[in-house]
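Trying the structure run again after the queue cleared.
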Amino acid sequence: MRLAEAVNTAYEYQGFWGSFWDIIWWFLWIFVFVTYLFVLFAIIGDLFRDHKLNGWWKAVWIIFLLFLPFLTALVYLIARGRGMAERSQAQAKQLEAAQAAYIQSVANGAAGGSPADEIAKAKGLLDSGTITQAEYDAIKAKALS
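Done. Tokens:
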């Protein structure tokens, strides 16, 4: 056996799962790639959320994101990161207010609306004999509280 053959056969590739460190590197690169995708989509979402930025500047940012993706993402986060956070907070507050308004409208609709409407419905049920006077008084007290 010659020395060159011994050197060439010293390391035998054992496939993807052959080395623990190969697996660690794969997971690291997958993590970096998924993180980059999150950043990329956050930047694109912020570009379209920003109503102060001209459409041409949005196009320029998108073109640079296509041709110099890592550098452009880094520059965007440094240059527009504060505004990005402010726009994100404003959108979160807007969504929270819309959700609270929706919940309030559904709760009022389920409860029957105003206290006068609830008392009128309860009075109709009392007159028809569906509920007793004690139940009517309880509904009335709850509506007025």
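Residues 16 and 22 are 7 Å apart (CA to CA). Worth checking whether this holds up in the mutant runs.
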